[in-house]
Amino acid sequence: METIAIGVEINRGYIILDDYVARREARKLGLEIKGTLGIIRKLMKEKIIKIKDINKFYKRLEEINFRIKKEIVKEIFKDLVK
Length: 82
Known about the structure:
The protein has helices at residues 2-10, 20-28, 36-45, 54-63, 70-77; strands at residues 14-16, 32-34. The termini are far apart. It folds into 2 domains: 1-34, no CATH class; 49-82, no CATH class. It is built from 5 helices and 2 strands, in the order H-E-H-E-H-H-H. A two-stranded parallel ribbon has the order 1-2. Helix content is 56%, strand content 7%. It is mainly α.
């Protein structure tokens, strides 16, 4: 919740949040939110990073305890990863 407090205080651009509850509360306060996967997607679109295999990428997310459904990851990156 500290991230949300800082976001409200400085009121600049967006804040980075992945936690569902925190994102919901931040939206109620009118904050713009970016998540880790949104940032990765942006970097891919700008050709700064490349993910060739969505299954390997998802497995790595699991290894670092990033909890998200595989279907959601596939949907986010469907136009960028074949």
